[in-house]
């Protein structure tokens, strides 16, 4: 029982006493007096004098704002139309001229027609790529899938002819020009695989036809090269390596 009484006394023991209660009461009275004195001072503060309404209106800014000058011609749609009209056609920007392609094709098909050196000296690869694709398609119809050989021999042959012409010509020639000339002169070679679709070329008829096609391609190529590079008197020297190159395509077609 003595332990229970000691527990009760410890449980209810506190530091709060009557003196603390009186101190908190005095603090609350002091806060009330301070709040009342501030309120009284605020009520006793003098009111501001009367201000005329004209002085309350804020004065407007009398300066000038920056306003950029508008140019009607700059925003008008006619300026855009004029700019588009002055631009060259898309095919001309890509270097594709159908008139020149047609003239080169006619020059190749007619070996006796004189070549225009200004047109033949262009780096036009549209026709050569097209004619190589037609040759590969003709071989495909004849039962031979030789697209890789066609493009591979064309690239290697153009490198060899390009090196040879640079040694023979004093002015020099670009690789694109050589590839363009040899590619256009590949057009008669398309006749050979076209005939192979209907009959076999491993005979006398095939041999004669292959020789005629080789002579046709090499004669056209040498004529165009001499006209474009001003190499007069050297046509036979140029026709010989061209005949070797086109002979490879003929062998690929016949055998």
Automatic annotation (TrEMBL):
Lineage: superkingdom: Eukaryota
Protein name: Protein YIPF7 isoform X1
Keywords: Membrane, Transmembrane, Transmembrane helix
Biased composition (Polar residues): 18-31
Matching InterPro entries: Yip1/4-like
Transmembrane feature ranges: 125-143, 149-168, 175-199, 205-225, 237-254
Cell compartment(s), UniProt: Membrane
Similarity comment: Belongs to the YIP1 family.
PANTHER family cross-referenced by the UniProt entry: GOLGI MEMBRANE PROTEIN YIP1, PROTEIN YIPF7
Location of region: Disordered: 18-47
Major location category of this protein: membrane
Topology within the bilayer: Multi-pass membrane protein
